[in-house]
Structure formats: structure tokens, C-alpha cells
Amino acid sequence: MAGLAPGYRFTEHLIQLGDITFGQVDEAGVHWHCEKPEGWEGPETRMDLAQREADHGAWPSPAYLSERVITLSGKVFAPNRAACDEAFERLLAAAALTDTVLAVHETIPKQLVVRRSGKPLVQRLTGTVLEYSLLVTAADPRRYALDEQSGTTPLPSTTGGLVFPLAFPVSFSAVTVAGEIRAENTGSFETRPVLVIDGPVVAPTVFAQYDDGTVQRLAFSQALAAGDRLVIDTDAHSVILNGNAGRRRFLSVPSGWPVIPARSAVRFQFRSDTYSPTALLTARWRSAWI
Fold it and tell me: What is the value of pTM for the model shown?
């Protein structure tokens, strides 16, 4: 295997953990081999069963996905002892105690955010060959698209059109802003967006309209000044003003937190009783797979 050029790929799907790319030769001539990541195919499921009294079967509770536990294992071949020592340290650092992106470059590349959840096992087989096994866990079991999607809209408005008194020829042109963002999830599992509202705006409301006509409403009861930014994380159920102030108590979620269903789209509509031309709603999301 010696002499392969940096960047040479010897696997169909590259795997990235931190700054290591498994499945190819790096710039130092190190060959990073990784078997198929165990656990990538799916997490465990949580569900309770209550046995039916005097009847067959059981009563099931709602089912939920557990955290996703993944094991990365394989071998590393280095061109010399110094490169092997550096690869040893990189393996230990890649399985970090803080949030780290684990990505698999399939036809549609996908990623998880993981942390070390077990002792890294790195063994020196020779002076230039390592064998490793890294255990990491994704608290959020969804596999997300690498590319984040986003959309932005101001509050709805109409400008232009007829101006009186009329002068010929008459122009009927007008510009209408719908105040709406269409967010599509092309994955196989629901995803949860982040909604960002930039002021100034008084008591902004976001409506999530689904294809079946269902509407969910997020209503913030306070005013945002110019320069204020409110971040609503529908997964964490958090509402943060200007990066550090919790404002969850001022947000009304009467029909639940909105999600974007699998292979579907949601239209997020931005509204306020008082018009502000510089107020903005931004939606950010990633398609998700189970």
C-alpha cells in the first residue's frame, strides 16, 4: 500500500470525524482505513408494553428513538514512525468530549453531532501500523443533510399599483411580499427548524401551515427593538434573545412545536399587528433521515 498519493480513495464512502477523513490517504501519506460504522444504520427504540389482562398481546406506549451509539474501527498505516505517532494522537483527539461532527459521504452526505462515550482503544501493532476502536454517541439520533437550508422573509406588504390622479398610459404594476418561507424536508424523518426573528417588530407571530391545512402558531408577546435578534429552537424548545437572555416564558405555543414532516414542506408565515419594513424572519433547517 506504500506510495499511494495523498487524496487517493480506497473506499466508496468517505467518513469524517473531526479533522480525520477515513477512507483515503492524507497529506502525510497516512492511510486511514475504517470499517462500516456500526450503529449508522439505526438507533435503538424506546417503547413500553403493558400486558393485556385476560387477553392476548399487550398495550403499546408511543415509540421513540434512543440516542445513536456508533463504533468506528479499523487500521491506520503510516509511512514512518513519526507519522504513526501523530496519527495516534489525532485518533485520541478526534473522539472529543465536546460536540464533534461525524459525516458519511453517501450519495446524499449525512452528518451527526457526536461526543466520546467510551474509552478510545488504540493499539500499536507495529511501528507504523495502528488498530483502533472509537465509541461515540449522538444525543440526537437523526442523520442530517450536510447542507443547511434557509429562507428569509420580511412582513407581508404591497407596494406600487395605481396612483391617483391617474395619468395615461395607466400602470397597474404592484409588488407584493407574501411574508412566507417554504421549508422542504426531502429526508425520511421529521426535522425541526430554527426560527430567527430580527427586530424591530411588536409581538411577532409565526404560523406553520401544513399541506393538510393544519396550522400551528408561535406567538411572542414582547416587542423587539432594532438590532434585537430572537432565536427560537424548535428542537431544544428554547427562546433566546441576543444570544444570552432566555425568553421562553413570553412565547406561546398553543398547539405544539412545529416540525417539518418527512418528504413534505411547511410554509412559515411571518405576521405582526404593526408593520415594520426592516423586521425579518429567517428559517434554518436540514433534511433528516432516521
Answer: 0.86
